[in-house]
Design goal:
The protein is α/β, with parallel strands linked by helices and 260 residues long. The chain has eight helices and ten strands. The longest helix is centred in the last third of the chain and has 23 residues.
Length: 260
Amino acid sequence: MPPLRALGIDIGSTTAKIVGVDEIGQMTWHLLEQAEPRVEAQVERFLERARQEAGPLDGIPLVATGYGRRLVRQATRQVTEISCHARGIYHEFGHGGTLVDIGGQDSKVIGINPVGKVLDFVMNDKCSAGTGRFLENTANRLQVPLERLGTEALSAVEEFSISSTCTVFAESEVISLIANGVPLAPILRGLHRALVKRIVAMVRIVGLVQPLMLSGGVAQNPAIRRMLEEETSEKVILPRQPQLVGAHGAALIAMENSDL
């Protein structure tokens, strides 16, 4: 592995990610795990892995982002997710646009100008109906593997509309539909549609600037991608590592700040 120039760590509600970059900002090392309650212990284990694989970390800057960023005491700086996601996606694509990031407990829509600066953003961090947790709860309740939710939803010809905008009420609505003999796939399709419509409402607040980009763990769900395209009439572009965009951006910011 090439020598690390900087590190970025993203402590989310569902996953924790760390990324190392080389002297030109390319991602050369990363680690991704389920987020643990004891953030400090998980961060120290991440850094120990970095030492084992890259050597001493003395003098290597570390920027932390994500909802748990203030618990990363080893960080030289804490930076908002908005700035880190914008920086990470711009480094990969080299252009602006509209970035949708769907996380476990919040979702973000970020407008980015042609040189990578944040124009505007909106966040949903008050209700899980527009986040990955909405799908995760559904998968657990219906005993469908999370990685199969999108495929199952797209297999349906019909689509049952889910009227509830609250996760708890939506779950009750789903249980009622199943009890009345409605097949699972059309219900899942309707659930995905409900989530996407909430995201698209956020996109309209910011204003859709082409192209439309998608990051976060939910980016791996094919139904979310398909329905975003249907609802916006725009092609969705995915980064190579959707879950690592924020951590990569944090590492880039760490590298740039160390040069000042």
